[in-house]
Amino acid sequence: MKDLTTSRHFNEDEYNELLQQTVAVIESSRLQIAKQMNTIAMSSYWEIGKLLDERKLDSKHGDSVVKRLSADLKSRYPEMGLSPRNLWNMKRFYLHYSQDDTKVQQAVALLPWGHNLLLMSYDLAVEHIVFYANEVFSKGWSRDMLRHALKSEYHLTIQTDKQSNNFNATLPAQQAEYANEVFRSSYNLGFIDAVEPLKELALERRLIKKITTFIMELGSGFSFIGNQHVLGYNGKEYRVDLLFFHRHLRSMVAIELKIGEFKPEYVGKMNFYLSLLDKLEKAPEENPSIGIILCAEKDHLDVELALQDVHKPIGVAEYQYLLPKNKLQVLVTDEIKKSRKKESNL
């Protein structure tokens, strides 16, 4: 009988695509398991908090009761973290959300307990609580990432920024609508753990090192093809910083990283890369390649004008290290000044 494992040779690109798709299946399953476990745990904490509230136990009159309850529960369930402090937090959890609608309660039920405690320490509107809960669950934010996002008021940046792309003018209506859902105008790169501005190659290396987290930040459907992807044409080589494939859009996605503010000339370079990708690598059944220029800051009007007569689908997005925007800009400006001073001294 013929050995099926040798009946067809997989090239490196095919294997990488298979690997990324398999990882996506496993990650999706793990998210579902985590969702179920968190929901069960939060349901238990909610009900315990409700019991304490119904019996009108508080820190003044119920301290000894809660301490005794904690000791008895810990002897039976030592792994559940049922300290007196945690029991009081369960009551606080119940009181914090018991008057909210089911949408809010369902959103926070998906989160780990530590994330919920952190969210409750901030005075947030209902829609912002739901926003952060969805971000944590869909992108796998750690508690530290959530803390940085809350401190920088990440929800205000995301919700007030305009989409900066030409998808409606360059893609079929249905695909353009979906592309506008997939790609955002701002991305959170706090997971790279940068404490100071990075040059483009250093930023790229940090993203590659944590590519799984970066893919979660981009959203579902992305498969990583490679970094510094070589495009050879007319005896010359060109390199795309990061190249992905989006399974649902059926498009390659090229990402160019820029450490400073957006410049109109970046569009011309991206347009050229997309032309090469479509000419050299796009399969007949695939849709046109899409380009994303990821920079530290952008002006919507500048982007709009730069994209006005461009026929390739290109979007411009900001990245953030989860620092206040004005502070980030100062750091980037200082880095650029240092680089220019070094060049002038050479």
The CATH class of the largest domain, by name, is Alpha Beta
Q: Please, what is the average pLDDT?
A: 82
Structural class, from secondary structure content?
A: alpha/beta
CATH architecture of the largest domain: 3-Layer(aba) Sandwich
Gyration radius over CA = 24 Å
Strand order of the largest sheet: 1-6-5-4-3-2
Order of helices and strands: HHHHHHHHHHEHHEEEHEHEH
Q: Distance between the terminal alpha carbons, to the nearest Å? A: 69 Å
Number of strands: 6
Question: What does the largest sheet look like?
Answer: 6 strands, mixed
Q: Shape from CA axes?
A: elongated
**Low-confidence runs (pLDDT<50, min 5 residues)?**
1-7
For the record, the count of structural domains works out to 2
What features would you describe in this structure?
The protein is of the alpha/beta class. The protein folds into 2 domains: about 140 residues, no CATH class; about 190 residues, Trna Endonuclease, Chain: A, domain 1 (3-Layer(aba) Sandwich), CATH 3.40.1350.10. The protein has a 6-stranded mixed beta sheet with strand order 1-6-5-4-3-2, with helices on both faces. Helix 1 packs across helix 3, helix 4 runs parallel beside helix 6 and helix 5 runs parallel beside helix 7.
